[in-house]
Amino acid sequence: MVSLLVVPKCSPFLFGHGKLSVLRRKSVGLCGFSFSPQTTVAVAMVKAIRVYEHGGPVVLKWEDVEVGEPKEGEIRVKNKAIGLNFIDVYYRKGVYKTSLPYTPGVEAVGVVTAVGPGLTGREVGDLVGFAGYPMGAYAEELILPASAVVPVPSSISPTIAAAVLLKGMTAQFLLRRCFKVEAGHTVLVHAAAGGVGSLLCQWANALGATVIGTVSTEAKAAQATEDGCHHVIIYEKEDFVACVNKITSGEGVDVVYDSVGKDTFEGSLACLKTLGYMVSFGQSSGAPDPVPLSALAAKGLFLTRPSLFQYNSTRDKLLECAGEVFANVAASVLRVRVNHTYPLSNAAQAHTDLENRQTTGSVVLIADADA
Asked: Which of 24, 76, 135, 235 is surrounded by the most beta carbons within 10 Å?
């Protein structure tokens, strides 16, 4: 009697611990193995979002998926809250490449339910979070490399932690390492009322910078002001380049943090002062057009397209980055707005609202058992 389910290599991170499904296999090969007609294979099942083709939110399917036990160096985590990020949209649309089918999501917080053999430093019951790697957060439960998770302080709720971990670490590397913002700098933040934008504005203000933010509506302008923007530009009503030129008396800003892309890129370059930094870290409006070097030469501009993964390439850097984020949340330097929550099963609606700019602050998917 074979009691072990052999899992195909195409499922590198299988998910959770849930209801048990009993399958009977006749003489059918599974990954090259054959079972007798009487073989019964018990499989633990959980719910997850699966994507089989690129496209709109309709491609997000709510399905049963299989789970394995954690191996050496791995843990199993039951998710409490999952962060929704625009990178999830990029993968869903095929802007960023990954193999199909897949389970989306790169940020979640949950409780450790099992620990792989020989692993130390993690215990069942620990509250942990991960952000950026691996993909697969849109699931009730999943297997993770222990090296990818960070401890979540007990003073921070799973929902808040899931809302701030990826976005907060993004803000940390943008402000503290990519271009080190200091008192006296003037910064321009596009999408200032968004998940990352909100944190950038708060943190840059706390560092002593003058913060200029762009938003699309009056309501978002009010939030950006509350988050520390000294000047807010509603770009659908005003030319943000002209506004920045007026605010800075023609000098320009030290750095632009641009997550919008195509619609703002050229204007962002025009807003920079001599030797200014153009930090492009997203493209919600589409990829920018190619930039000739001559566009940078006139003012000696610096242009970078960084990612969190490059800046948190080691375990020590990951822990330091997450620790600084959580410390700033605890000290109320960062105020985390979870303005929208959705059941995980309703991820398609969450994606729709995010893409239609119907959300502000952070959006969190709640595991259906906790919703």
From this structure: 76
Amino acid of residue 118: G
Q: Which residues sit opposite 253 in a β-bridge? A: 272
28: number of Cβ within 10 Å: 10
CB count, 10 Å around CB of 275? 10
Q: Burial code of 169-190, b = ≥16 C-beta within 10 A, e = fewer?
A: bbbbbbbeebbebeeebbbbbb
Largest CA distance in the chain: 81
Bridge partner residues of 271 (DSSP): none
Dihedral of CA 71/74/78/84: which sign?
negative
What's the chain's length in residues? 371
Angle between helices 347-355 and 86-93 (to 10 degrees): 100
Strands in 253-258's sheet, in edge-to-edge order, are 231-234, 210-215, 186-189, 253-258, 272-280, 302-304
HSE toward the beta carbon, residue 359, CA cutoff 13 A:
26
Q: What is the pTM of this model?
A: 0.82
| Main-chain dihedrals φ then ψ at residue 165, nearest 5 degrees | -65, -60
Structure tokens at 216: 């699309």
| Omega cis (within 30) before 292 | no
Quote the percentage of the chain above a pLDDT of 70.
88
Output the six-digit token pair for 39. Answer: 């073989």
Q: How far apart are the first and last CA of the chain?
A: 40
Report pLDDT digits (tens) over 43-69: 579 999 999 999 999 999 999 999 889
Average per-residue pLDDT in the chain?
88
**Partners of 75 in the β-ladder:** 115, 144
Nearest to 198 by CA among 58, 317, 362: 362
Written as one string, the DSSP assignment of 47-115 is: EEEEESS-SSGGGEEEEEEE-----TTEEEEEEEEEEE-HHHHHHHHTSS--PSSB---SEEEEEEEEE
